[in-house]
Amino acid sequence: MESNYQDRIPNNVSLGSNRSLQRALEHWQPEFLNWWHGLGPSDFNASSVYLRTAISVDTKGWATFDYVKMPDYRWGIFLAQEETERRVGFGDHVGQPVWQQVPGEHRSTLRRLIVTQGDTEPASVEQQRLLGHTAPSLYDLRNLFQVNVEEGRHLWAMVYLLHAYFGRDGREEAEELLERHSGDADKPRILSTFNEPISDWLSFYMFTYFTDRDGKFQLKSLAESSFDPLSRTCKFMLTEEAHHMFVGDTGIGRVIKRTIEVMKELGNDDPIALRKAGVVDLPTIQRYLNFWFSSALDLFGGDSSSNAASYFANGLKGRPDEIKYEDHVEADSSFTLELPDGKGGVRPEKIPMRNAVNEVVREAYVRDCEKGLARWNRHLEEAGYPQRMTLPSTRFRRTVGSWANVPTNPEGKPVSHEEFAARRDEWLPTGDDRTYVHSLMKGVFERGKMAGWIAPPERGINTQPVDFEYVRFN
Ligand SMILES: [Fe+2]
Ligand SMILES: [Fe+2]
How many CA atoms are closer than 13 Å to the CA of 55, on its beta-carbon side? Predict the structure, then answer.
């Protein structure tokens, strides 16, 4: 069967004139659609959704908006415009021309980096597959599906690289990306955060704010890669990723705003009273935040890492915005980590800068996370409340790196296991919290209507009004 790929897969990689790549993707596409039907959003495949579709890499008009049934979404393949004479930007080979093909000595490492990134994309779609049923509005339902189809496109982006540059083993890896499944006992997704189901919308907003933002930093690190097709692919993915974080940022902000409204109405901030009134009390939001932030921090890897050092030395994966750093080689420079001293305190340890790349990227991520908190806290400030949302310390509840399984309080002060256990319910979501948040999750599918636990957004999508019919049920 002939498919017209120029037509069906929008792309700027000359798919139409590359027969062998076309054949490989022809083989993979039905498997992708099978996966979408089996593990993508449940039950909404017949609905028409007002979706954005990437159609080019022109910054002025890179996407169109229209009603689409999700299985008919045109998952395209786009690489950001080629930079003329781009050079290796960091590491031992700085200044040499970048690579248009995969160097033999870095083949398996690059493949692993691409597969690890690629694995997270369909994983998040699987994690979120049941959320549609409890959407707080049509606006939110549409945003969920927008995120889902674009994560699907990000999978295509990685599969394109595997098919185009890694031959037979690349094709096998592409198949396995559809065979591992989030939470599967035998074949789970590679990274543990991506095996946790996301069954309520507060978690979804936290995920898109904190976990998609980890994705942003991973993509920015890979966008620095000397393997040019990987760099260009990731650069374009970042364009879409921005909206995913917007969904989380404004989603959390709207939950807080609604809670403040009810705090004003009731004249108090008692969690029991607020829950009776059907909104999420601030301490519960803070506990969710503590949970998702700390789990996203683990995704950056160990704070001292020889893998990170060799990725940096070899120019495979770098630091986001490398251009902003003074030293692009970091051959003799060092970085001071703060490690647990095993006696309830902290001790400094100097390590080579290259080994600290994960920590450097994690610090940049934390600074980026703080921006949303400032926005959310402005709602509280403007309403005249003294409470503030805070990011816990990067030492808190870690399972990766030097602070893994070292109990600390949210301020990062080491505490005994007994104290952690005794205060855990103050710091992290309890069974009760989750049961309560779940009890709020009831789908609101009437045009312009909003669930009672969340404020409406300030504006709609693509200049449409908030009460636009973002999803039409057929
Ligand atoms: Fe993605
Ligand atoms: Fe994303």
Answer: 11
